[in-house]
Design brief:
The protein is of the alpha/beta class. The chain is built from ten helices and 15 strands.
Length: about 450
Amino acid sequence: MPNASLPHLRAARSQAKAELDAILAAPAAENRTALTPDEATRFEAKKTEIHGIDRQIESAEDDERRAQRAGQLLAEHGQAGERRERVSVVSEPTTYRKGDLSGASWVRDMTAVALRSDTDAAQRLQRNTREVAHETRALSTTDSAGGTFVPPLWLVNEAVTLARGARVVADQVRKLPLPPGTDSISLPRVATGTSAAEQTTQNTAVSNTDATTDSVTANVATIAGQQVVSQQLIDQSPVNMDDVLLADLTAEYALKLDTFVISNNATNKRGLLNVSGANAVAYTDASPTVSELYAKGADAIQQIHTGRFLAPDKVFMHPRRWAWFTAALDTAGRPLVVPTANMPQNVLAAMGDVVSEGFVGTLQGLPVYVDPSIPINLGAGTNEDRIIVLRSSDVILYEGVLRAEAFRETKADQLSVLLRVFNYAALHSERYPKAISVISGTGLITPTF
């Protein structure tokens, strides 16, 4: 509903919320304690729909506020007796748009500012920066002309759809904007708690243990990439170079950020696979089977229940591991993982959409996400992958606004321009180590089909 009015959007959200509540109410009505695979799939789809409507409502409310402000200004500054035209405020298109044939190019404007101090180009870049900052609800990063500007909004939003691994895991943990002016983020933590015990007799001392505290720290990392391009290509290319250069750089940034969240192994920058104290579930078998691995999944879940005392909410695995699940058959030749559209009964897992990245189905009541950035070269034989079971809200990814720069001076002797894309991120993965379970072992070697 791209052109829906605000009342219609709110009504649509209320309807979607009611449908979501109905899905959640179904187990209680039928004396069940968990959602069926089909209900879980519809639940995730309905949450996504509500999130999309919320974004449209925010945009419509912004338009409404701008219209009200325009009316106020007209009322305040209009001269008495003059004819007042009706003012209509509509949402303007973004400065740089995907597939735009008007010639507006972020790359050309960046070089125009650097080469000629072009004020029109600088204004377009600054306007684009405000658009991106508004849509991402992050701080503006605009510097003086020729300095730092953020890439176009469509590049920031659609980088994950390019022909590289997407940032699946990075987008499924809790995300917060990176605070400015810091190179580390420390959070206080209760290290050991108080105590309580039965008072054996009256008027005797009660249990007394002093709590101790410490902190967990996440250092800010810089993820960056660059590309040298000839001035001739920028000036003479019949197409906007944004589509080629920035899309590739932002896609590579998304991939490296996802790898950072999954696999990084440095002090105060631990990826999920390297968190000290996380639940380790070993599956060792020279002839692994899906049914055996299914039991290990239950172990990974219960360890979060018993160590974190709250439930996990997501499972991550490599696409090859999920494909191995879907290929498994029972003794009668029937598949153990069946599409939810088939209304499966008593299945090991249930498939949603067939995709290479993102949500694919459910396993033991939890949504499963496949991510090709999960390594497949681990273990003694360098041929193992890993399965991560996670309480995702316990992991916080602080991320800034993706920024880009153009430099002519460093490559002036060869008539080239250096383009650079970078961003800052910090990962708090060790707040609750017991909120993470990692299944590993020889049972996760390269699967055969």
